[in-house]
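Lecture 7, part 2: worked example. A protein chain together with N-carbamoyl-L-aspartate.
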Amino acid sequence: MELTLTRPDDWHLHLRDGARMAAVLPHTARRFARAVVMPNLDPPLTTVDAVLAYRARILAALPPGAAFEPLMTLYLTDETAPEEIRRARASGRVLGAKLYPAGATTHSSAGVRDIERILPALAALEEHGLVLSVHGEVTDPAVDVFERERVFIERVLAPLHERFPALALVLEHVTTREGVAFVREAPGRVAATVTAHHLLLNRNALFDGGLRPHHHCLPVLKRESHRRALIEAATGGDPRFFLGTDSAPHPRAVKESARGCAGIFTAHAALELYAEVFEAAGALDRLEAFASFHGADFYGLARNTGTLTLGREPWKVPPDYPFGSGRVVALRAGETVSWRLRGPERAPT
Ligand code: NCD
Ligand code: ZN
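Predicted complex, written out as C-alpha cells:
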C-alpha cells in the first residue's frame, strides 16, 4: 500500500546550530517543504538580526538540491521592544514570536518572567498580524508537572487571549484534553500543533521496562485519556490542529544522565510516525489536511505544490544517528516504524 500526499510542513521544529544542525537538517528537508524553526539556541535569538543570520546558516547547511524553506520566529523576553516586532514584520521572513515562560524548558532561562512586561510586544504582534507561539506550561514548582499545561491555560493563556482577542495564537505541542478544549472553543485565530510522540505515547512510556530518558520531553507525556483527546483532535479534520513535530535532538550522553534533559528526536521518521497514528485511527484520508493544509492556511501561506509518497513497509530505526561530534537516539531506536518514505535516501545513517 502507498500513500501520496501534498508535501507537508513541520510547524514546530528544533534544528540546533553548527555541525549538529547540519546532521539533523537533511531528515527534515527530505520530508517537509517548510518548517517553523524554534529560536531557543544558546544564546537565544532575541533580535531579528540574529534570527535572519540563523536563517542564512540553515540555508547554507542544506544538502545540495534540497527544496526547503525555514520559517522563523523571534524569542520573546521581558525586554522585547515593540520596535523589534515591527522589524520582524518588515523582514518578511519572521512569522511571529515564541513565548517561553522562563525556566519552562530547554534554553528558556531568558524567557518571559512577567507577562505584564510583554504586553507592548503582544500588542505589536496583534497590530502587525504576526503569530504568538506559546510554550504552554507554568513554571510554578508548586504545580504538579503533569498539570502545568492545564494551569497555564487557566492562569495565563485564557486571560491573554481575552486581552488580545485579535492576536493569532498557537498553543505549541498541545498535550492535554484541556488544551484541546481551549483551542476548539476559543473564538478567533487560535490553533495548536500536535507532536507525533504525544499521539503515540502516554506517560507509561517513561517507565516502560525502566527509566526511559529518550521518552522525556516537555511538556511531559500525559496519561492515556489525554492522548485519546489528542488523537481525536489531530485525526478529526478540525483545521485548528496541525502537524508540529517538536523534534528536539540532544546528544545521547546528555539524555542518558542523572538529569536527562527534555526533548525527543523524531525528524528521522516524522511523517511516517504520524501515518501510524492516522492509520490506527482509521483516518489515513485525513493525514494530508493535518500535515499539509491546516498549518499553511492558519499562517496565511500558500499550500505546497509537489507530493511525497509513503509506503506501508516496516523498517528498523538504527540505534542512533550522527549528531555533530556525538550521536542522537531517535524515537523507536532499534525498533520498527511501519511506514517508509519513498525516494532517494539522502539522510545520513
Ligand atoms: C525542546 C528542546 O530541547 O529544545 N525540548 C522539548 O522537550 N520539547 C524545547 C521545547 O520545545 O520545550
Ligand atoms: Zn519545542
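Residues 345-349 have pLDDT under 50 and may be disordered. The chain has one domain: 2-341. Keep this in mind for problem set question 3.
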